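Possible regression after last week's pipeline update?

I re-ran a chain I had predicted before the update to compare outputs. Posting the input and the new output here so someone can diff against the archived version. Not blocking, just want to make sure nothing changed silently.
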Amino acid sequence: MNRDEIRGSYTVNQPAKRKARILVVDDDPGLLRLLTIRLRAENYDVEAVENGTQALAAAVRFRPDLVISDLRMDQLDGIGLLKELQHRWPGLKVIMLTAHGTIPDAVQATQMGAFGFLTKPVEKQELLDQVQKALRISGFIDTDQDWRAELITRSPLMEEKLAQAHMVAGTEARVLITGESGTGKELLARAIHKASPRRARPFIVVNCSAMAENLLESELFGHVKGAFAGASTDHRGLFQSAEGGTLLLDEIGDMPMRLQVKLLRVLQEGAIRPIGSNEPIPVGARVISSTRTDLTQLLAGGQFREDLYYRLNVVHIEMPPLSRRREDIPVLVAHFLAQVARDSGTRKIYAPEAVELLATSDWPGNVRQLHNVVRQNVALSQTPIIPVEMVQQSLGGTQGKLPSFDEARDEFTRSYLSQILQITGGNVSQAARLAKRNRTDFYKLLGRHQLVPDDFKGR
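New output (post-update):
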């Protein structure tokens, strides 16, 4: 991110409407052209490639919502492509194209996970019907992108995570979202819910680390009258309250072992048994889990059940920390300022130097910390323009940790010279040869970085 980008004016773009993206794969140039024309005429965004290898490369760049692939191709055939797409992007729908003689193979492909198949020559209306049905089932929202409106980003890394979330939204696959505190794991879970066929049903969050074990058990699974002292009525658990919708188990790594066993049973049987009852109640809620902790470490320490881990971790999405998406900081700041203005009527902006400091500082608390700093600055600033000094005060010792290019280069050079002197025991001639520099230039480098060869002799 350069200085002009940071200091320049910045605005938050509303989520733009977009067309459904369809990747078409066929080694017949004539059919490839025909399918492309027909789909583009229906306002779809189409990418056309001639083989499976090209299709995998295009999928990374194009991020399709649907793939239409020929079954018989050289190099990587349709079955091989289907398997690879399913592995990389679970939930991505694939329609197979087949000649009459390969219909049994196409049926086999649908049994392996293909959405359906079309026989050649492809009838136009059948093609469009299949495409519309596949997109509808996958959860694609063709009007706008309101499903992701709360996740403000211009980061390619975040766009990759959102594309993965959108692909899995139309499936029933369980999702495990990991990442540091404050990275937006709950927002991503909510976005998956909004992009899914369950969007009209409840989205409910329970924090597994925020309550005592017995209370968490009661909240999740419910209890019947008389199960506890003073319990005069039945209590519906959150699994029942989220019926038809989505239940987010936040901080799943903190769930007590006894409740892990009970949760595993629910996922295996598709039914809950409220406390005090042996009557199973069918569960129709989709489960998404999130955690800030490394579950693999908990597995190794015997603190998390391996069988539950694999039940929950069907699709894994890792939310990146803010330090890996610094290009998002100016747009997030603008978004938070606009939020405050809508909520309170107070309109303020940051001085350019203040935005620069925000964009180059460490954010151990990630987006949540940035949000809190912006709200605090707006509340305390006595002027319409928030000065850099106020940001420095808010950040304390965390500001300015990102070195400049020159500082980073000097730090690397000094470290490199120290290492090479240590290897040669302070022998300047040998060190200069290893560095492929002449002795005079090497001595100049040592002097510039205040390194004395004698300090390395005898090490």
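Follow-up from reviewer: compared with the archived run. The chain has a mean pLDDT of 86. Marking as no regression found.
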